[in-house]
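Exercise 4. Each item below gives a protein and its sequence. For each, produce the structure-token representation.

Item: DNA damage-repair/toleration protein DRT100-like (Arachis duranensis).
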Amino acid sequence: MPVTAAATLLFLAAVISAANSCPPSDREALLAFKAALREPYNGGIFNSWTGTNCCRNWLGVACDQNSGRVAEINLRATTLYTTFEKPHRQGYMAGHISPEICKLTSLSSIVITDWQGISGDVPPCITSLSFLRIIDLTGNRITGTLPSNIGNLRQLTHLSAADNSITGVIPASISSLTGLTYLDLRNNRISGPIPNSLGQLKFLSRAFLSGNQITGPIPASISRMYRLVDLDLSRNRLSGPIPESLGRMPVLATLNLNTNNLSGKIPSGLLGSGISDLDLSHNMLEGYIPDSFGPKSYFTCLELGYNNFRGSIPKSIAKAAFIGFLDLSYNHLCGPIPKGGVFDTLDESSFAHNDCLCGKPLLKAC
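Answer:
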């Protein structure tokens, strides 16, 4: 091979190698990020973070093939750490998420989940990472508040910070995340109301806000999220009526509102909608259960227990296409329990602690 051709090949190889190497600034930022965290014992993930090329063989790090910049940090305890666990020795990572992570300006994904011991705040500077599509910090001990200007992350599609100790309110700017499809903030200490503007998230398909201290009414604007499939607002301090418009949502399949302070009547549209998993238990709902069931009613689970419903059990429930589980306990219902359909498969617990129900499966005859 001629000398010039060999030199050209060596030059091209060097260019390709450089293109696939992370810049020193990204490597330094990753090492600073690492320094703020502690693994439970030696021989873990960070032992692979050696050498000058953080794009190669650094566990949990991925780079953009074109720019060579760090694009993803993916540290899931359940998938990465099991490789290093010793028999009968459970460990977890501790420390905090360093603001140095914000120097990785090409990041599109930050996944740091299920480490149990990572604490501290969500670095506010994270909202400057304009390419972020995924933030998942589930299963840690993160405190503080969500950044108030989180709406700056216009590319974000997935936001999860469940199972932490986050306080404060849901930032109003969250409504600017118009491409968001998944929102999970359950099991924190978030307070205040649900922003009225939440309905602007037209692409949201799943919203989980349960297990917080959220107050105020359920915004009717939620019904404008026409792609919403799952909505869980359970175990909060919500009050006021259930918006009737929730029963007109085209693809809503799961609605969980249990353990709140909701009052008023059940919107009849909820029982004739496409919702198949409906939990309204442990509230202060009252009035009659709407007699609006029919052949299109299909419930894998229908829970109405621990409320103040009165009157009789609607006979139309027996006409439902399917009800896998029904709970009407701890209300003020009276009269005979209908026969046929779902009522032939239920046990006494579904009707316990009402004022004057009678008939099978209860021991009290009518």
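Check: Residues 263-365 form a domain with the Leucine-rich repeat, LRR (right-handed beta-alpha superhelix) fold (CATH 3.80.10.10).
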